[in-house]
Amino acid sequence: MSNNTDPAARPWWKFGHVWLVVSGPLVVVIASFVTFYLAAHGTDPVIDENYYQTGLDIGKKIAVQPESLAPAIQARNHAATGVVPTPKSP
Fold first, then answer.
1. Which domain holds residue 22?
2. Helices (H), the chain
3. Can you tell me the distance from the alpha carbon of 44 to that of 75, in angstroms, rounded to the nearest whole number?
4. d(CA 71, CA 74)
């Protein structure tokens, strides 16, 4: 009489714990292929061909310190020195 309940007699794929261990790395491998596909086929176009010069122009505008940046500059100075700025009289 043969005993079919012997765990060594069953093939490896019949054990549930094997699939629990294999499924984690398998999901990661599949996700990496999906990520590679998205990265290869979903390239972002360059919006402005002259992006460097545009950035320099924006930097020059900010260096002038327009009125819209005044609250930020006052807050920066207050944080650095501890002196409370006085409100301007109209």
1. 10-41
2. 16-41, 51-63, 70-81
3. 37
4. 5
